[in-house]
Amino acid sequence: MAAGLRRIVPSVALACLLYAMAGLPIARAAASIAQYGTPKYPDGFTHFDYVNPDAPKGGTLMLANNGASFDKFNPLSLRGVAAPRIGELMFETLITNSSDEPNSAYGLLADDIRIAPDGLSVTFHLNPAARFSNGDKLRATDVKYSYDTLTGKHGSPAFKVAFQDIVKLDVLDDSTVRFTFSRRNGDLPYIAGGLPIFSPKWGQRPDGSRVEFDQLAFEQPITTGPYLIDQYSPGRDISYKRDPHYWGKDLPTRRGMYNFDRIVLKLYNDDVARLEAFKAGEFDAVSENRARNWVRSYTGERFDDGEIIKQAFPNHNGANVQAFYMNLRRPLFLDLRVRRALNLAFDFEWANRMLFYKNYERLQSYFMNTDFQATGSPSPEELKLLKPLRKELDPSIFGPVQLQSVTTPPHSLRDNLRQARELLAQAGWTYRDGALRNAAGEPFRFELLDTGSALMQQVASVYQRNLQKLGITLTFRSTDSALYQQRIDNFNFDMTTLVMPAVQVPGTEEIGRWGSKAADTPGSDNVLGLKSHAVDVLTDAVASAHTLKDLETATHALDRVLIGGCYIVPHWYSSKFNVAYRRTLGHPASPPLYYQAESWIVSSWWDAAGQSTASVK
Known about the structure:
The protein folds into two domains: 11-270 and 577-607, 3-Layer(aba) Sandwich (D-Maltodextrin-Binding Protein, domain 2), CATH 3.40.190.10; 321-412 and 481-573, Dipeptide-binding Protein, Domain 3 (Dipeptide-binding Protein, domain 3, Roll), CATH 3.10.105.10. It is globular. It is 26% helix and 20% strand. A hairpin with a 6-residue loop joins β4 and β5 (104-107). The longest helix has 18 residues, at 548-565. A five-stranded antiparallel β-sheet has the order 1-6-7-9-8. A five-stranded mixed β-sheet has the order 20-19-21-15-22. A four-stranded mixed β-sheet has the order 3-12-11-10. The protein has 617 residues and is an alpha+beta fold. α11 (380-386) crosses α17. It is built from 18 helices and 26 strands. One of its GO terms (molecular function) is peptide transmembrane transporter activity. One of its GO terms (cellular component) is ATP-binding cassette (ABC) transporter complex. Pfam families: SBP_bac_5 (PF00496). Residues 1-22 form the signal peptide.
């Protein structure tokens, strides 16, 4: 997910980081901030336009969750697997984003935001109504405790990466905190405001001693969010109940949201079992990301009689960076020619035709479906950034942006593999004794790590067969989600299937994803292990851009360098969410511009038994 906290921070904090923009801050004190122009919603607004402010409260929402188990309630530490959706349902932040604009944030735990004229600090005043689930008032010292804990030795190391430009947090009075920054960067007030807040009493024993933060397991979190944990069984399910004393229910950033009395997550480790359970009525809604399933399996009597509704909801999200990621810590992948060859062996057109019913498009950019995607040849402004780095960059980066290989006529897989063989030979790999070997006689072989989805196994098996034609041996290693996460966090893999969540407007998270400092930090988003001075310069340019034009120039240049480096084998993307749901669920007439389907269901839908299933005021 973003800002170096992809698998760690709760989604509310994540959203603040995802939608942060790089630009000059505006000195102001208000309940909202925007990097460019003004926020869409003025002070005193009553609710976001994309929610139903009068949505009825009540009922139970049953959902499925991929993954066999969880072993803790703490989503903010590195060890273990946290309970599903616990971050977005229980942990809140100082500010929250609006889902119909990409660059604004509004007060949540804070009711006033003041960015210093020099851009080197931001001050938050806490909402006097804010309360923890145990009834305690939220105080400035609680914010500092949360910050100190997450950036200390017991918090996930990724928080240190995310907050590396925060010099200190000062408590000014009982209700006011100030974050001071090491440099002027319009991203930083959003990152500071995205700090997850929790009580110092979480993990405190009756005798006054404390469970270390990274050892917290099934101790009930003491937080400010709208839900509490009700019941749980680590291998089966977890249910959350709406806090009847939730402090924020009437906030404009919360009105019409979190409408269900209970939200139950059932655990499934198998896509087929999950689909059959849905059709049998064991849960209420599902966002289906398998095109084959959507076309062929979401059929039957319940669909025909309208008990279950199929609907494709559009979205304007940037595309997730889904791909086979190479681990550059492995010497096998250090040669650009090798990485290019591995890209040429992937046949997207076959997969789209045979597996996806032509529902997807090929991923061509690290910022696909946004204005930050590089196109054509570098502009003069981009060349100003790229030319000083010329000695480090492949010459192709200075020409038209590289597109992924295709196999549609007049192109073919055979031609692509021929090019791949030539590149491998140039890199010192030749076919002899039944395998592709280097000068030392070592065979070209590597392992692809995945959580074992049936679809990905099909895609990987075709990729495996194409590589075999080159003399390369690919071994497919399937593991459960917990072990997979552990291996990814510790960079113990050769190649892996990974989805890096999209950012609508790039910012500091690019440093965490591709920057050299994050490459050796366990649990960081730099899964690739990429260490490149040129990339470091360009990610810094993205994070420190002063205008929207500067930001576009920096991201275009960064995109060209990442694409040209062939560090991943890009997969595919879609600009819609396929959702099947029971007709007893209600939802706003239109989704917001930027959202994730199941988070939208959790946050904005309601129990509509006996009511219209789509209404909004």
